[in-house]
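Ligand-bound model needed. heme C.
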Amino acid sequence: MISARMSRPAKVLVLAAVVTIAAVVTACGTESIGVQKSNPLHEGAVLFSQRCAGCHTFSYAATHGSAANVRSAQANNGPNFDIRCERPVARVLYAIENGGFSGAYMPQNVVVGQDAIKVAEFVATYSGRHAPTVPGVQTCSEMNVSTIPAFTPVATTTPASSTTTATTGSSSAAKPAKHKHAKKKPGHP
Ligand code: HEC
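Prediction:
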């Protein structure tokens, strides 16, 4: 790149350009997921950075999607989770399934199933950490993160559940009885 035949100012220019490019490239790589790989919430952070980055700012996932300036904010700029507390986990899961709280701007089910739970647990754990403290207002760390209970298949756990069988049994027995009457009447001459 730098040859002996080049003039001194040209050499300096090329060197300066190389240094600038190197600085820019390394700066791009410096911001990374703020959750260690060994942490079980790491996967949720990665998913967040892949799926939610366009609309939400969250330093723990290295995203900048929220509006930087209220004057230039657009309707689909989502809240900044460094500031906004999102606890418990069920609240985040609701927003993921519903598309935010209004359902108007954020797409529904950007992540689903176990992935949605992983993202929700990550958001609930790390959100609100840079919120300003307001006297008299509970801080995010004082609120419960909570968990989503593990999935237990209904069929194997409640076959002998007397209450559910009794209620469904009686209601289904009552309906066909009415139908029989209705059918019999016109059938009789
Ligand atoms: C297309 C932009 C967009 C994408 C993508 C998006 N969101 Fe949103 N989100 C929004 C907007 C806008 C709101 C606020 C409006 C609302 O709640 O209806 C919001 C609201 C929320 C809320 C409720 C926040 C509050 O306190 O009001 C949560 C939680 C949330 N988003 C989580 C997520 C997660 C997790 C993902 C990725 C799986 C995601 N969002 C992807 C735009 C987006």
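The chain has six helices and two strands.
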